[in-house]
């Protein structure tokens, strides 16, 4: 029997409806309208598209979207000055610098300059440190989105064996840490696999919940998955497809057709984890606004 689809599109839609009601209450009861500043340097087509998607998401839940677009030759010094201005602006609750930045700008300098209380991407070293020790903080959006997708999809994480394939600073490491915490919605036993893991299938076949963020199509095939496992595919890869108008199609890191015959739940690509990332960005912006104004 084929796996049921774990739809991030459906979960994100429900969460955004809740957020819209929460923003409405914040405005009515406290006069607070969350504001997200998005900084885009250059005209990378993918980045322009992402920023447009974030703007539409903000409009959907009535968050103020404050865009700062600069030319590709914008200097690092000028960018740091802009970050300082946004840090000091009470109308800005969240700051997101769209990556990648032009080569002449050190992204670490820029991300580290963001006020941790406005770091809605959750990548500031202070927030990552707080996450590591289990303190309240703004969590990285994609990892937090995967956790919420599982929980709202009816998956009990506590006590389960989670195998994480991938150890990036954006997904693998923070997600493994989030699910390991002694907290409600976590408490998993977590194994992390990566490109230097010998015979990865030995580990993946033991997973109750298999999460894949490797950045390569068909990293996980059906023979690497236990019967009844929950499979979350974080990967997004373009592969050539002459039958499509754009000449390509999007696939994940998992052989979807094969694995869905063994799994109990599986996320599609697209429409799985992707919609959750921007949704958790909205979540972080609202949370930052509430903290800034002392709202429980």
Short descriptors:
296 residues, alpha/beta, Rossmann fold, 2 domains, 6-stranded parallel sheet, 3-stranded parallel sheet, 11 strands
Characterise this structure:
The protein is built from 10 helices and 11 strands. With 296 residues, it is of the alpha/beta class. It folds into 2 domains: 33-123, Rossmann fold, CATH 3.40.50; 141-276, 3-Layer(aba) Sandwich (Rossmann fold). The strands form 3 sheets. The chain has a 6-stranded parallel beta sheet with strand order 1-11-8-7-5-6. Strands 3-2-4 form a 3-stranded parallel beta sheet, sandwiched between helices. Strand 9 and strand 10 form a beta hairpin. Helix 1 (8-30) packs parallel to helix 10 (274-292), helix 6 packs across helix 7 and helix 6 (141-152) packs across helix 10. The longest helix has 23 residues, at 8-30. The termini are far apart.
């Amino acid at each position: 029997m084929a796996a049921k689809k774990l739809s991030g599109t459906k979960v994100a839609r429900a969460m955004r409806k809740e957020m819209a009601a929460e923003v409405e209450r914040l405005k009515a009861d406290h006069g607070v309208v969350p504001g997200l500043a998005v900084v885009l340097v250059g005209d990378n087509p993918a980045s322009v598209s992402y920023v447009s998607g974030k703007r539409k998401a903000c409009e959907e839940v009535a968050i103020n979207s404050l865009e700062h677009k600069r030319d590709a030759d914008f200097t690092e010094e000028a960018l740091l000055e802009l970050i300082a201005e946004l840090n000091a602006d009470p109308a800005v609750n969240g700051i997101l610098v769209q990556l990648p930045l032009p080569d002449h700008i050190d992204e670490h300098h820029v991300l580290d300059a963001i006020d941790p209380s406005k770091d809605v991407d959750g990548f500031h070293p202070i927030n990552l440190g707080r996450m590591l020790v289990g303190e309240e903080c703004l969590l990285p959006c994609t990892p937090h989105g995967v956790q919420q997708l599982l929980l709202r999809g009816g998956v009990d994480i506590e006590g389960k064996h989670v195998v994480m394939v991938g150890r990036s600073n954006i997904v693998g490491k923070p997600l493994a840490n989030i699910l390991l915490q002694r907290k409600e919605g976590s408490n998993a036993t977590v194994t992390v696999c990566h490109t230097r893991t010998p015979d990865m299938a030995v580990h993946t076949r033991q997973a109750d919940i298999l999460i894949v963020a490797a950045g390569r199509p068909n990293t996980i095939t059906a023979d690497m998955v236990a019967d009844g496992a929950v499979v979350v595919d974080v990967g997004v890869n373009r592969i050539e497809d002459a039958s499509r108008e754009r000449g390509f199609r999007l696939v994940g890191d998992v052989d979807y057709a094969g694995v869905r015959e063994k799994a109990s739940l599986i996320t599609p690509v697209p429409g799985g984890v992707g919609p959750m990332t921007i949704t958790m960005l909205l979540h972080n912006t609202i949370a930052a606004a509430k903290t800034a104004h002392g709202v429980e």
